[in-house]
Amino acid sequence: MGSTFSIENRDQLVEAVTWAAAEEQPLEVIGRGSKRALGRPVQAAHSLDLSKLTGITLYEPEELVLSARAGTSIAEIEAAVDEKNQMLAFEPADLSPLLGGTAGSGSVGGVLACNLSGPRRIKAGAARDHFLGVESASGRGEIFKSGGRVVKNVTGYDLCKLLCGSYGTLAVMTDVTLKVLPRPQKTYTVLLLGLDDATAMKAMSRALGSPHEVSAAAHLPAALSPGSAVSYVAEAGGAVTAIRVEGPGPSVEYRCAALRRELADLGQTEELHSRNSLTLWRELRDVQPLWQEDERAVWRLSVAPSAGPEVVAAIGQGAAYYDWGGGLVWLALSSEGDAGAQRIRDVLGQYGGYATLIRAPQKVRAAEAVFQPQAPAMAALTARVKDGFDPNRVLNPGRMYAGL
């Protein structure tokens, strides 16, 4: 029977990983456990529990920087920055409820390890763009640091970017440093009602190409809009296209009015203010429109925005909505068989793009490629990077790709 190493400090982590490397005993790296169902099932009898490695170690609001131990809950960090009217601008998605867990239970280390970013990504960038510094233990049990507390403090290789999105397969993060930004004074959302998917893509493209500094654009087809907690959306009686504008109050009001005038030829418009606007974008961020699809597999597709509706139509038999101006498609399909994996890969082979299986039964995640299959040259590079950080394959083996 496997052991669980409950880590409270750096020395315990080094000891556990050094033992695992010497004995060639793979370890499953667990922050707070909220994302264990994301990715391929890890092939490890033992686990590293980082849930006690917690606490905000530095927060300087004037310098827009925050440091915390990797097991610190993202909810604690968001509460701390909110008190200072600041935010994590990459808007980290909380996938815990989608994966069968409790909302707000994820860790900052887990968010960065999975590079989880929300609707504001199209304007503010992804999680990795706000990841300034890290202390980690490699698969050899060696502690290393990268980055610092300011954006310009980068010497040598920027390993933060490499670790962000590696799903714990290269190193175990102990401490992380993030850039924070001021929270917008006002958040409004322009709604266009009743648009079909193709027209919605046109509307979002026009809004994002305008001078009105749109911070997010998404489209909920008619089948999914009734599930929103925002009455304007739930009672719209059809599809809802949402365009978010943030900033100082007078500027937001002016830009929303301008957008409504410029998009009026495409359909009826409405406007959400403050609480309703925040609620809608939190729902879209956390994939709440697909929560009720609890018997289905959930895929995340990255495609050219103009191709999104055609991709969804070609795959067929699924419930889908669009974020990032149409470039991100959240898609729910039957979890039977391969959960639509072959069909999706075939369609993306024609249109281009990437697909990640976010939620599916364990047997499907073990049998199918959860992440986009890599070309031979890229697969060879991935293996060499793994060899450099974790030559004995002890950290989260198999989480992303078989054999790694």
Question: Please, could you describe this protein's structure?
Answer:
- The protein is an alpha+beta fold and 404 residues long.
- It folds into three domains: 1-183, 2-Layer Sandwich (Uridine Diphospho-n-acetylenolpyruvylglucosamine Reductase, domain 3); 186-285, Alpha-Beta Plaits (2-Layer Sandwich); 288-367, Alpha-Beta Plaits (2-Layer Sandwich).
- It contains 13 helices and 18 strands.
- A five-stranded antiparallel β-sheet has the order 4-5-9-7-8. Strands 12-13-11-14 form a four-stranded antiparallel β-sheet.
- The longest helix is centred in the middle third of the chain and has 15 residues, at 249-263.
What descriptors fit this protein?
Alpha-Beta Plaits, 404 residues, 30% helix, Uridine Diphospho-n-acetylenolpyruvylglucosamine Reductase, domain 3, 13 helices, 5-stranded antiparallel β-sheet, 18 strands, alpha+beta, 25% strand, globular
